[in-house]
Amino acid sequence: MEYDVIGDVHGHAAALEALLDNLGYVERGGAYRHSSGGRMAVFVGDLVDRGPDQLRAVEIARRMRDAGSAAVVMGNHEHNAIGYATEDPDRNGHFLRIRGTKNKAQHKAFLDAVGEDSALHRELVSWMGTLPLWFETDGIRVVHACWHQGLIDQLSARSRDGVLDEATLVETFRKGSDLREAAEIVLKGLEADLPEGVSFLDKNGHRRFKSRLRWWDEQATTFAAAVVPEEGLDGLPEEELPPEARVPPVSGKPLFFGHYWMSGEPRILSHDRTCVDFSIAKDGVLCAYSWRGEETLDPANLTWVGQHAPAMAR
User: Fold this and answer.
1) Do residues 214 and 263 share a domain?
2) Do 163 and 95 fall within a single domain?
3) Do 150 and 217 lie in a common domain?
4) 207-208 and 70-72 as β-strands: parallel, antiparallel, unpaired?
5) Same domain assignment for residues 128 and 233
6) Which of 87, 106, 194, 287 is the most buried (most CB within 10 A)?
7) Which residues of the chain have pLDDT under 50?
């Protein structure tokens, strides 16, 4: 089987349909399927929030999954949606994710599309709860933000093929829980406390004292080299990262992930691992990597489309 690994869609259904068309998928029987029959899509998660066509984006991925022409892994936005919609079983009237101004604003596009607490809202969130936190075959690995084998092993003990049961999902929202920490890293990436006196404002205007790390780069061992670039975050020291801020190396098959809002023309990050999120929700492109069995990733296998432009392929 060959796989087309598709980056974060974030409600940009028109771009997704253009990308699928460019990759050779056709809509038959209500679902997109590859014309060859020997390829399937893998979505890295974050189907929802931000973009203009939330319901169509979810519908496309869901129908493809049901038809067996795609797999879908959970992103942090699906996980957040589950927490926002799910009442805390231990606290009447409270939800697993706080329904405050900040969280509501981040989730606004999806809530506007489904109608907060509607039957459709509950039904789609229930479907999101069936998504695995990772996808692995003999040939490839796919995760939304970070493949940390030790944490995936920990979560695997409470899951079936990466799908968490209801009790485990609830626990991933409990402060202080080991499972919460594991899910946070797998879904949102590894972070480290910034050196003393260093902070920045994130894209939503919130001051941050932690930053995401380029965990996929085994040579990035200092703050200056390892911190994912953020606007306003400058002057990082050549100070070694603490041991807990490093991901144990994993090899043996190509690894794909999303989440990181890469900018510029899509590119391969290393010979055996790469991000496929090139910021469709922020004037970027929707990107896919078509894996055909190779051990070394090939930039020629990248395909992308713009938000409002016809398909552009490489």
Assistant:
1) no
2) yes
3) no
4) unpaired
5) no
6) 287
7) 308-314
pTM (2 d.p.) = 0.93
* Contacts with 125 (C-beta within 8 Å, 6 or more apart), sequence order: 81, 82, 85, 86
Strand-pair category, 141-143 with 134-136: antiparallel
The answer to whether residues 186 and 146 touch, using CB atoms and an 8 Å cutoff, is yes
Q: What's the distance, CA 269 to chain centroid?
A: 17
- pLDDT at position 307: 59
Residues 202 and 300 in one domain: no
pLDDT, one tens digit per residue, over 106-136 is 999 999 999 999 999 999 999 999 999 999 9
Q: Which tokens belong to 133?
A: 């936190």
Residue 203: is it exposed, middle or buried by C-beta count within 10 angstroms (0-12/13-18/19+)?
exposed
CA-CA distance, 283 to 265, in Å (whole number)?
12
Residue 206 in tokens: 């919130």
Q: How many domains does the chain have?
A: 2
In angstroms, the CA 183 to CA 44 distance is: 15
CATH of the domain at 287: 3.60.21.10
| Residue-range definition of the domain harbouring residue 296 | 2-179+250-313
Burial class (CB in 10 A: 0-12, 13-18, 19+), 153: exposed
Q: What's the CA gap between 196 and 183, in Å, rounded?
A: 27
Say whether both 76 and 222 belong to one domain: no
